[in-house]
Design brief:
By secondary structure, the protein is mainly beta. It has helices at 83-94, 268-274, and strands spanning 9-13, 34-35, 40-45, 48-51, 65-69, 72-78, 95-101, 108-114, 124-130, 133-150, 155-163, 167-169, 188-194, 217-218, 223-231, 235-237, 248-250, 255-263, 279-289, 297-309, 324-331, 341-346. The strands form 3 sheets. It has an 18-stranded antiparallel β-sheet that branches. Strands 4-5 form a two-stranded antiparallel sheet. The protein has a two-stranded antiparallel ribbon with strand order 16-17.
Length: 354
């Protein structure tokens, strides 16, 4: 027997074109889609299976079983996150994408924020091949995105995708992947500001703080790690008339989580908790120039305009350790800015276009 190899796997997503109608699918061409590289992914069929064991059949163990509703989902992660993946998955989960071009050059800033309540998030087609079996999945939406990183390593990302159950075998050829460098935490600047000095710049600049009217605290030397999550808390809308497929997927009350760890350095962060000071933070990864004649660099920015500490960040560590402190945060709405702003800088002109 010739065994199936786990490394023999392929995945592509219609990153550059969304479904015009939920579940309608997208033509998987190089213009509309890209293959993914450097990932770990799990396809999940979470079908609802029903039996007749709750009724009298005259038999001890029942006599029938049926698939009531088909359920598809994916867990996807990149331990070494690339700008293209940041743009795609942040756009898929948060939904609102604005593009700015670097002059007339093939370099673009994609500003991504959560869609307003009442506006739908996009859906895409995904194709996955593993164990020699290839399936096309339509009606895929982004349920959550988690972005993090640890000092001395790479930015990492993970996304939970949810589908309405549509799946079919496919033989579509896989399109090329986007070639980019990984985003290193060594190229990431981290700033924090508090109180009235918090001002989120409308026109943001790579490598320069965009959260303060003055001089925010540079956390670079103290930085150990961070993790932030945006969750749509999606629910399938089964309705009627869709057979065993959901008719759409919509978000619930969206939630955010943020935590980061610093080298402990005294009273400042403890006072932020005691006084319940409003805080803002920015993570800014700036890599190589996208175009040698331009001013945009491969990378990304994450800005959270307002949060407060949920617990006192007391020092942690044993007698032989360098002390650290973990800041667990409650993300809030400042009434002016989105709760999270992500900017991804790539050579791709559009993501999830109509």
């Amino acid at each position: 027997m010739i065994t199936k190899k786990g490394f023999d796997e392929q995945l592509m997503i219609s990153a550059f074109k969304k479904e015009l109608t939920y579940g309608a699918g997208v033509t998987m061409s190089a213009a509309n889609a890209c293959s993914m590289r450097g990932y770990n992914a799990t396809a999940k069929w979470e079908d609802e299976v029903d039996t007749d064991k709750d009724t009298t059949t005259g038999q001890e163990h029942g006599t029938e079983q049926d698939i009531l509703m088909k359920r598809t989902a994916f867990s996807y992660e990149e331990p070494r996150l690339k700008p293209n993946s940041l743009a795609l998955f942040a756009g898929l989960v948060m939904g609102d994408i604005t593009v700015t071009q670097d002059a007339l050059l093939p370099a673009y800033r994609h500003t991504i924020i959560p869609v307003p309540v009442g506006t739908a998030i996009p859906s895409v087609q995904l194709e996955h091949k593993k164990g020699g079996k290839q399936y096309a999945y339509k009606g895929i939406k982004g349920n959550s995105i988690k972005i993090g990183g640890e000092s001395g390593k790479y930015l990492n990302g993970a996304v939970e995708l949810i589908g309405g159950g549509d799946r079919a075998t496919s033989a579509t050829a896989f399109v090329p992947a986007i070639t980019e460098s990984f985003m290193k935490i060594g190229n990431c600047k981290v700033w924090m500001e508090n109180g009235p000095a918090i001002v989120i710049a409308g026109a943001r600049t790579q490598g320069t703080q965009d959260i303060s009217s003055g001089a925010p605290v540079d956390l670079g030397a103290r930085f150990k790690s961070f993790e932030c999550t945006f969750n749509n808390n999606c629910e399938r809308q089964d309705g009627s008339g869709g057979g065993d497929l959901s008719l759409d997927i919509d978000y619930g009350r969206r939630t955010m989580e943020l935590s980061f760890t610093l080298l402990f350095n005294g009273q400042t962060e403890i006072d932020h908790f005691d006084q319940q000071n409003p805080l803002a933070i920015e993570f800014d990864v700036k890599g190589a120039l996208i175009d040698p004649a331009g001013a945009m660099y491969y990378g990304g920015q994450i800005i959270i305009p307002r949060f407060k500490l949920k617990a006192s960040p007391l020092p942690e560590g044993g007698v032989n350790d360098v002390l650290t402190c973990k800041l667990d945060c409650d993300v809030e709405d400042d009434g002016t800015n989105p709760v999270m702003i992500i900017e991804a800088y790539t050579a791709q002109p559009l993501y999830l276009a109509a």
